[in-house]
Structures are given as structure tokens and as C-alpha cells.
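Revision sheet: C-alpha cells.
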Amino acid sequence: MGVDEFLDQDFEESEGGEGDSESLSDLSSLSSLSDDSEVDVSDGEGEASPMVLGFAKNNPRTAFKSEEQLHESVREDANKVKNTLLKNLEKETRTHKEALEALKEKDPEFYKYLQESESNLLEFGPDEDAGPEDSDSDSSEEYEDRGEAKRLGKDRKKIILIDDGAITTWCTAALTKGSLGAVKNVLKAYRVGCHYGDDDDETNQISVRLSDSNVFNQLMLFVLKNVDTIFRRLLQIESGQKETEKAMQSKKWTKVEPLVKSYLGNTLHLVSNVTEPGLAAYVYQRLRASVDLFTKFPVLSKKLLKLALKSFGSDIGNVKVDKTARIQSVLLVRSLALSQDTLLDESYRGLYRTYQSAAKFASQQNISSIRFMQDCLVEVFCMKPDSMYKHVFNFVKEVALFVRNSLIYKTQEHYYRVYSWEVICSLDLLESLISKHGSGEKDVLQPMLYPLVQVMMMTVTLVPSSRYLPLRFHVLKSILRLSKKTGVFIPLSSLIIDALNFSELSKKPQGVGNHFNFMGTLKVPKDVLKTTSFQEQWVSQTVLLLAEHCSQWSHHIAFPELFLPLGIKVKGYMKSDSLAKKFKAQLAQFLEAGQIAAESMLQKRQVATFSPKDAQKIELFINEDMKKGASPMDKFYQATLKQVMKQDKMSSSSDVLLAGDRMRVSNKLANAKDVPEYSGAILDKEKRKRSKAPRDSRLEGTEEVHNDEDRVEDFEMSDSESEE
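Predicted:
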């Protein structure tokens, strides 16, 4: 009888039945334990799955082992696995100790600090004298307990607290001695400060902590104030861009480069979570001091540019932000564009798009911030006039396409696009740029003068409705400024006087009404349009624009020919019954001043000894006439302007003048004052975690004050046009 037959007979005739057969089958499988064998357990379909310890399949040598022999074999294999794990643990312990020894040689100051404050961190692991024989004597339960303790030790990483004494020592050594190790320690602690208040998953990766808020404030302010000086001292840079470039090519840069990168990256993380304008302005100012050292980090520099642009367009209408974070952020953008040519075009586009995004929410409450941003853009764009032509060309083309589409399709959607603060503010910005760099024949933006004027004039006449008189007056003032600064004659008299053609002026007013603020408004409410107060402002603004236009050319030798058709048209309004008597009186004063100025110029022309083709003598004649004093039209314009400004100032609660030239930046960006050293507490003692503002919170305030009247809701023509 063979072995197989014997086994078959034993399993079939067993007295224990089916259950005992399964037990014997399991026992015979366990008896086949072998050190060199692998497990081959069938799942019933012919597929086998291996196990760690393994059983030999059909092994007759182990098929009849007793139960005691089986347990002994299992115990031996378990001890072997345990010894292997212990050896690996001892190997890791020795490797970690070698790393600590290397730290002792590389950074003795930090190692000494660990010995004094956290000496227990340097004493760990099993005894080196214990050999594998001693480990073998441990029971399996002790091994499991030690493994569990080791696992918990890894999860609960020991935290090193940095106190005031350590910070003071490191900062003093870094600033006075220029110790590279001290600088590294300071920047390591600075990284902890920049990530203070982050998510727990990120914070748990850092084993160093700052002891309290005083240490936090001391460290952060020291790094922001002095790290640029420390970097330049390590690189031996005194001043000048050339010395910086030369130092960045030396061997010293290889040691300082990781420190600069760490400082820039961590400061970007800090400023992205700062909500106080004063602190953000100070951080931007200190980053601007080291901007020439960031040229080797294009990716981080681009992130810095994006953060500065985001800060530049945030909190529109906040005067405190205008004076702090907004101006410092645009100064940082300008420095980045000057130091890195690769960021120049991106800076121009980013500033323009940020300005457009902010202009969407323009209103009477934040129009001063929009104009402040506009003046900042003019300063930045003009730092390299030769590089801005292509950008100005694209900006003018973009607005021209909007106007052309509205003229072609004539739908409300296209009208909405043009009659919005985004387009109107863009026209104002382009007017400022071309006025500054397009007045001369050789100026870089002089070719863009004519296209811009055409776009602006088409914008004025796009929707001939009296409800859009504020928009009409706003664009006409921009064209008048452009004409005055460039010295180019632009025929505007017909566009200005057409504002008197609307039928609301010929009808009886409905109520007195209040003083209307034209600043920050593009559209007049229907109930305001027919009030007496608004109609008086309506005519006053029209006469003021006519006087300003004629005053610009009242000293020109061709002024009589310029004023003749305008005077005839004004006389026609005075004879008609469409205007009230008080409105006709204002036109009569304008007509009288213009006629006197024209007659005076005719008398001067009679004694002239040159012909119209002598351009140089004509220019000399105009300059001499301007030196003689103000013309009658100049005097009328100044008197009318003072009267309008006085009424606006008395009727408005705003401190901003609502007439005349728009508010300008008092000082150029080059003369902007530095932000004083930040003296507040970056981290409040009572508030342990830095609060994070929601991503869209910077636009919430501007959305609330947005005036719905500024939007183009309908395009109803005035009564006169509907009757026609």
C-alpha cells in the first residue's frame, strides 16, 4: 500500500467523521513546515497563493510530525523573523547616531543648543552592548511591546522650542559676525514663523517651534529688516547692479543662494496670508530692497509678481490701502520689471488687467482709488517708453473692437461692453499715456493719437440718450485734456453743444431735486433727469466744456474762424423756445466772451506782416499773445469753473473736487516715501493663530457699494428722438 492509498483510506474511514477529517487535513498541512519551502495553498480552482512562512506541498518527510514538533518549528521561524527586525532597528539607530555626529561637526552651535535644552533627544535606542543573543532571549510579547513603543515614538515627534535667548544669540551672530551657521538657524526659525497657523498636517512636519508670540515678533521683524544687509555682507556687495551680478557669479553665491531662495519662498507664503495693509506694505518694501537678488529664481519671482498685482488691485476705495499696500506693491512690480526683462511684458499686461478688474466696480465711493491706480500705471509704463508701444497699441485695438462690434450688431450686450466703467477707465488711462508720450512728432506714442480720438468720439455718440450725459461729459473732458497736452486741435464744439438738443430741457421740470454728483456716475436715474437742479448742472457743464474748448485756442491766430460756426449755432439756441431764459443767459455770456476774443484776434491779425504759410512766425505770434495775458475767453472760463466748483463743493459731502481736472497723484512713484518700520505685533498674544481671510473677501466690500445706476440697463432714446 502506497502512501497516497494509506492517506486516502485513513481520511475516509476515520471515526471522527467529516469534521475530524478537516482537522487532520489541517494538521497534516501544518506538519509540512519547512524553512526553505514556500506556501502553495489551492483555492479550489487550481490557483495557488503564497504565504510568508510557507508549507511544503506533498512533502512526505514532514507529513507525520507530532504536534509538539510542529509548534517548535513555528517558534523557531518566529524567532528568526524577530531577530531580522531587531537587526534592522539597530542598523537604523546606528545610522541616526552617525547623522547626529555629522551635525555636531557641521553645526556645533545648534548641537550645543540641543545638549543644553533637549539633551534627552541625543539619548535613544537600545544598548549598543546588547548582542543578538540577548535579543533572542526576549519573548515575543516583549518584542511586540517595544515595536509598539517605537511606532508611537515616531508618531509623537519631539518638538524643539526656540526661546528668546536662542533667537537673540543667532540674530546677533548673523548681523554682527556674519556667521553663516547663525544665518541658517535664523532662516530655519523664520520658516517656522512664516508657516505659523497653517494646517496641522503641514505643521506636524516641522519639529521646531517658537516659544511665544514675543519671540515670533522679534524674529520676523529682525529678518524682514536686516536679512538684505546680511545677504549683501556675505556676498561683499556694496552698491550697484554690476557688483550684484558679479557677486552672483562667484563661489560665495553657491552658499548664499539656498538662503536667499528660502527667504523669498517663505516670505511669499507669509505675505499671501497677511490681511493688515500696514504689514503687507512693509513686507513689500523689504522685498523690494532685495529684488536684484531674486533674478536667479524666475519661478519665485513670477509668484511674487502675481502677489504684488493681487495686492495692487485689492480693497478698492480704502484710503489706508492706497497709502500703504497699494503703492508699495506697484513699486515692487516696477522694480521687478526693471531688474528682470523677462517680467517686463508680463508686468505691463498684469497691471492693465488688474486696473480693468478694479474699474468694473467703480463708484462714487472708490473713484479716487481707481484714479490713483491709473496714475500709478502711467508712472510704471513710462519707465521704458520704447517697450510700451506694442502694449498701448493692443489696448487701443481692444477698445476699438468693442466699439466697432456695438456699431455693427447694435445689441444691448455689445452696448453693455462699451458703456461700462471698464472701457471708460481704459480710455482715461490711454489718454494719460498718449498725453505724456505722444505730444511730439518723435514721441513713441504719437501714432496712437488719431486712433484713440476716433474711438473716444464714437463712444460719445454711440447711444444718443440724455440718461448718459455723465458718460458723455466724462469722455469729452478726456478728449479736451488730450488736445491741450498734445497741442493738436480736435473739433469738439458740435459734440459738446449737441447735449442741449435733448427734449427734457424744453419741458417743465418736475420738482427741484438735489445736487447731482457727476463723479463716479455714468448714467442718470430717470427721476433725477427732469429735476430743476440737474438741468441747471446740465447746462452749466455744457457751457463749461464749450468755454474750455474755446479757451484752449483763443490765442491762436485762426480763432475767429473756429468760433464763427459755433457762435451762429449758439445764437440759434438763444432764439429758439426750447431753452429757459436762465439757460439762455449763460449762453449769452459765453457768446459775448467769444465775440470779444475773436474781434481782438482780428485786430492783431491786421497788423501782422507774415502770411499764413510762415509756420514759424505764426508759432511766434501765438506765444507772444499768450505772454500778454489772459484773453476774454480765458477769463470767462476761469469764472465759470470757479462757480461750478463752488456749487459742487457746497453740495457734495465728499472731500474730492468734482469738477475741473481729475485728482492726480501728489508725488511721483520715484519720490514715494518709504513705509516706516512696522511697530505693531505681527502675532497677537491673545490670538495664537493667524486668521485667514476668504479668497473673495477683497472684492466683497466693493461689490456692496456698486451703484446699479452705473450699468447700462436699457437704451431708451430721449423724448425728442422717440417723437421723431
